[in-house]
Design brief:
Blueprint (H helix, E strand, L loop, with lengths): L4 H11 L10 H14 L7 E2 L8 E3 L4 E6 L5 E6 L2 E6 L5 E6 L5 E9 L3 E17 L1 H4 L16 H6 L3 E8 L17 E4 L1 H5 L3 H14 L3 E7 L11 H4 L17 H23 L5 H6 L9 E3 L11 E10 L1 H4 L3 E5 L1 E3 L1 E6 L2 E7 L5 E4 L7 E10 L6 E3 L5 E4 L6 E3 L4 E4 L18 H7 L9 E5 L8 H18 L6 E5 L18 H8 L7 E4 L15 H10 L3
Parallel strand pairs: 2-8, 8-11, 8-24, 9-11, 24-25, 25-26
Antiparallel strand pairs: 1-3, 3-6, 4-5, 4-7, 7-8, 9-10, 12-23, 13-19, 13-23, 14-18, 14-21, 15-20, 16-17, 16-19, 21-22
Helix pairs in contact: 6-14, 12-13
């Protein structure tokens, strides 16, 4: 660590006026410098942007941008293989160089020197792609911890076959911001292996893997997505000015303390995660307690579970006694409970017999001798993160019967309900849907890192405004290309898949049809391509689990 001349002078003026340095012992001088460096933790240090780390992939066959911060007017040298570029930091401490084009290869070292020296090892040169959008791009290989049974198809095999040292993964941390940031909040490149791939974007991973096998060059994927987000949060504030009559832009803060903001975001993310986990998973012993009917207090009330005016809250328990004759308890039975939104777990005598996610109909086939003769306790736990939990369907869709219906039990009535058995964290203030917030914190800091192209899967959250989306989507593409200083950057995107069928599906037109038309209009822009998915989606799951097929079609879309 070194001090430049100006800061040494400041040290003297602040801590030792009149240049009385000789009066200080060397020990005191050392302590003084140490104290000063603690007070100014970034002082005197060349810092590249967080996108630069060991194991990174840099874009081949194009000038390579490298940037960061340093002392104002500090002399900086950037070296990669035989290339070397020199730059002087601007008065605000920022700097950027463009290294010459390199062919695919490596590993190399990237060295950055100023008053300090940073060396990044195991650097490869190949093709880099930016993967962005909402939940179908975010969908991890091993699923979300907050959504039970959400792993993609054959996830264990996919994770086991993931050791590809020339594929590198970078996960952009979730970080909405009211102002445009110059750097990411954190992050590092990781080599593809079972540990790094398990929680990574499934589409991003399968795309990278197939592309690497096809092109035989290193592949880097920068993943920056967030489930449930509208397109406006991914657009720059400047690009949104054209839509100010349709989009309410939040005011730009007069002052911005990023440390304070980071604490607020960290708290929001953690509380949201805890809330979703509480909603998705009941306390360990609660299903057993409900089934033993030991919870007989006044908080249980008799309800018609199909009553539209039910207000159950985010989590409700429903239970009902079943009297099964001996002859029927030895037969295979079918249980049907209509539709339940959004997540439902079905228990019989305290044992889970099914998990369902709306709009999948709740139907369970009970094997022979599964129920017991006499009294059985059927319980349902319905969890809904956003609004009240509810049951839907027609009364005839709620029953227990044998195959020929000689035994039939109507389950549309005589239920007890309790929505106070679990304490759930209240709704947490979230920021990710605010216009431009994710662009500010999760896209802009990645610019202008060298890219081959962008892959995009988003649109479900904008299904209700297709005409506006048509304009905004094209604006996002042109704006991102301009900000990346790469008008020829490929932009490939997924058509929103089949709309999940619901209990009302026969009564309404597919609301995603017009959105697909809005998406297709973007194909008029050069170097864009839309991946058809309508035939491979899942009508009963908004997050299709066959992400391998989605990624394969994406690779096939490449020229």
């Amino acid at each position: 660590m070194f001090l430049n001349h100006n800061w040494s002078k400041i040290c003297g003026e602040i801590f030792c006026p009149n240049n009385q340095w000789n009066d200080l012992s060397s020990m005191k001088y050392t302590l003084l410098l140490f104290s000063l460096l603690q007070f100014f933790p970034s002082f005197g240090i060349v810092k590249p942007a967080k996108l630069f780390s060991d194991n990174m992939v840099l874009q081949r066959d194009a000038p390579i941008p490298v940037w960061g911060t340093a002392n104002p007017e500090e002399k900086i040298i950037v070296k990669l293989e035989s290339s070397e570029m020199k730059i002087t930091a601007k008065p605000d401490g920022t700097w950027m160089v463009y290294l010459p084009k390199h062919a695919a290869g490596g590993p190399f070292q990237l060295v950055i020197e100023g008053q300090n020296r940073i060396s990044f090892s195991n650097v490869l040169i190949g093709d880099v792609w930016f993967a962005s959008g909402q939940s179908n791009m975010e969908h991890p290989v091993n699923g979300w911890d907050r959504i039970p049974y959400s792993a993609i198809n054959n996830s264990k095999e996919a994770i086991a076959d993931s050791k590809y040292p020339e594929i590198r993964l970078f996960s952009v941390p979730k970080y909405p911001s009211p102002v445009e940031l110059k750097d990411l909040s954190a992050g590092k490149w990781e080599m593809a292996n079972p540990e790094s791939v398990a929680g990574f974007s499934a589409i991003g991973w399968f795309f990278a893997k197939e592309l690497h096998q096809k092109l035989k060059v290193p592949i880097g994927i920068i993943h920056s997505s967030w489930g449930g987000t509208p397109i406006q949060t991914w657009m720059s504030r400047e690009s949104l000015e054209a839509f100010k009559d349709s989009v309410k832009l939040p005011p730009v803060p007069a002052s911005f303390d990023q440390n304070v903001w980071t604490k607020k975001i960290t708290s929001s993310l953690e509380k949201t995660r805890m809330r979703r986990m509480q909603i998705s998973y009941p306390p360990k012993d609660l299903p057993w307690l409900v089934a033993q009917r030991v919870l007989r207090d006044a908080t249980w009330k008799t309800v018609n579970i199909l009553e539209k005016d039910n207000h159950f809250g985010n989590v409700v328990w429903l239970r009902r006694k079943l009297d099964i004759p001996a002859t029927n308890s030895r037969q295979p039975l079918q249980l049907s409970l209509g539709y339940q939104t959004w997540q439902s777990q079905i228990f019989l005598n305290g044992k889970e017999i099914g998990y369902f996610q709306y709009p999948k109909p709740v139907i369970v086939k009970l094997p022979q001798n599964f129920v017991r003769t006499g009294e059985n306790i059927l319980t349902i736990r319905i969890a809904q993160p956003w609004v009240d939990a509810q049951c839907f369907g027609r009364s005839e869709q709620f029953f227990l019967s044998n195959s020929d219906r000689s035994f039939y039990c109507d389950l549309s009535k005589d239920w007890q309900a309790n929505s106070s058995l679990e304490s759930i964290i209240g709704k947490v203030e979230e920021y990710q849907n605010n216009p431009a917030f994710l662009y500010n914190g999760m896209v802009a800091p990645c610019m202008p890192y060298g890219m081959k192209g962008i892959i995009w899967y988003q649109g479900e959250s904008d299904a209700g405004r297709p005409l506006l989306y048509k304009q905004q989507f094209q604006k996002l593409i042109t704006d991102w290309r301009a900000s990346w200083k790469n008008k020829d950057m490929s932009f490939l995107f997924f058509q929103v898949s089949t709309f999940p069928q619901s209990h009302e599906s026969a009564k309404k037109e597919d609301p995603w049809k017009k959105l697909r038309e809005a998406q297709q209009a973007a194909c008029t822009l050069p170097k864009t391509g839309m991946v058809m998915t309508i035939d491979i989606g899942d009508q009963l799951d908004i997050h299709p689990k066959n992400k391998q097929e989605f990624a394969h079609r994406l690779v096939m879309k490449l020229p």
